[in-house]
Amino acid sequence: MLDMSKPALPLAQSPDASASPPHRTADANLDRMLHAWQSRYTGGRSPSTLALAFLDWAAHAANEPFQTAALGEKALAQWRRLAEAAMGGEKAIAPKPGDHRFAHPAWSKPPYDLLVQSVLLAEEWCLNVVNSPGGVDAANRRIVAFQARQWLDLMSPSNAPWLNPEVIEATRASGGANLAAGLRNFLRDQAAAQGGVVPKDFVLGVDLAATPGKVVFRNALMELIQYAPTTASVGPEPVLIVPAWIMKYYILDLSPGNSLIHWLVGQGRTVFAISWRNPGAEMRDTSLDDYRTEGVMAAIDAVEAICGNAKIHATGYCLGGTLLTIAAAAMARDKDDRLASLSLFASQTDFTEAGALQMFITEDQLNFLDDMMETKGYLTSAQMGGAFQMLRANDLVWSHAIRAYLLGEQDAPFDLMSWDADGTRLPARMHIEYLRSLYLHNALAEGRFLVAGHALALDDIRLPMFLVSTERDYVAPWRSVFKLHYLNDGELTFVLTSGGHNAGIVSEPGHPRRHFRIRVRDAGARTLGPDEWERDTAPRDGSWWLQWEAWLDSRSGRRIDPPPMGATGFMPLCDAPGKYVLEG
What we know:
Strand order of the largest sheet: 14-13-12-11-6-5-3-4-2-1-15
Number of domains: 2
Domain Poly-beta-hydroxybutyrate polymerase N-terminal: 28-66, 99-264
Distance between the termini: 22 Å
Mean pLDDT: 88
Radius of gyration: 26 Å
Organism: Methylocella silvestris
Low-confidence stretches: 1-22
Protein name: Poly-beta-hydroxybutyrate polymerase
CATH superfamily of the largest domain: Alpha/Beta hydrolase fold, catalytic domain
GO biological process, one term: poly-hydroxybutyrate biosynthetic process
Helix content: 40-55%
CATH architecture of the largest domain: 3-Layer(aba) Sandwich
GO molecular function, one term: acyltransferase activity
């Protein structure tokens, strides 16, 4: 069991992923306090990272005066395009796919249609300016472009009630009742953000995380839930689910009709799931390797004891899948053969193309983040959630603000929204180790990630693997997930499904308008590139869950009687969903 009174086990790191200094002077601690204060006004982003990025861009722009001057000509060209559109010509520009700011029909009528055209043309020119100077460091250019996009989103006329025709129309029709309702929504959201008591539409253990089961093991880091069988016989190989600890596990156990765990149990699977503890300051020194040893490996030991040494279908989601891959590689290296297969959902192992979140993963930013977390010992759910929201500000910030605060609408509660509001924290040490070793140094993919003092090789894993990625995943882009093809030449089934990081995984059979692509690469066979794979793999309608169950079934033995609930040393402690998931 993880002893919080002692220093956490040292992370097995790459040589480049050095730990934070063990001792800091008084001056350094004052600097940490300064950085923590700065983070309140920068959204957790390092001022140095932002300043250096803009300085790099500005220096190159200044050193290309002729190209910079040509931007003036491009601005005049944009004005000519706008004038032609105003004089009755065809639209000069259309919103990009996924841009829903101007979808309401009123935006297509005068004078708003011309306002939309002017805004889109101005945004196109501004982004052209950002991308114009050559020689700018790629990471710095992404940061500058991101900041420019944030500013453009903020200044959009759709956010101004006196310029948004949909808001004007609603205000006129309701006599301003929409604005009064919007104020109530705003005050409610502010109360929730400040930790106030907000009525819950769903209750854990009743409406969500309600699949019957027992907590059969608990340590300082996690609880292990064993789910009660619902069929007379089950596959002999249990399924162990390792969720990410940046989310609560019941993303996979939402309402009964939308629960992967409930569905798996109904297919005759013995299912175990880890429920991670929501860390507080006492867990500040918990390491990434603690999550492996006290999480994954402790769970495997318990499942083995309960299921009579049966091999395990190990399944990981998001960061839980990355951790499970690390554990599987270490087990393969150490000739531990307790796993039957490896299934990974939206999980990355190579982080060179890890999406927009990678934009601010620099050494400077990580040092700033480390200082920011030092005062509390963890990253708060609000800080983490804010970072994810900024990656899709139009969809997750401004469109919500317009609907809730200007139109006075209130989203009908649903299970995924309730889960999304149930935030978690991240231990300071683990978070920095994870970002530095995986995101910054890509140590796992490059063979420099150490466990017990020895480097891991993902090609050591000799298990059938089932990988699921989603088309609109901005947390773990599917081409990044796909890269495991290049790190392991074993049998690998790859699925690309519709939806995003969460909704694409929660894709129960019968859900309308769902599709997926699936292709098997046999062990040692030629590997397709991602674009070639997508082009040559036809989409199928329906849920990928059925394909996964068939895949598990083909790698399982004959059905047996369900194992007991718990075993000696792992007797049931309480009913599912347990205690840790209830920690706010």
